[in-house]
Amino acid sequence: MARTLQTSTAWPSHPAPSLLRLTWLWSGANPDPTGLTMAHGTTPHFHNTEGLRSIEVGSKEFQCVGALPPFDHPHVFLDMGKDTEIVCPYCSTLYVFKAELGAGQAKPASAIFKAYAA
Known about the structure:
The protein is mainly beta.
């Protein structure tokens, strides 16, 4: 992937403009040229309120929340990388990747965590 460096002086009122002047553009395609927009809602979240030994998931990158709130642990981002399983360091839930499940899906489906705004 080619990287190009773009400089800008469009942030004179920001307390640290020198840090924000550099924006990395990957292959010239960046929907937010400022680099200030955060991604929301793209990382699946799973929980193990039922106390299962393992949960099959269709994503290799996700967050484990432990049990459902208010009994959740810190929401930790887990990345399996090349592996097909990972253990949550907080609740010791074993997550096993199954490609036949769609991204963001889990078996059992009750392990999918959906946050609702107050």
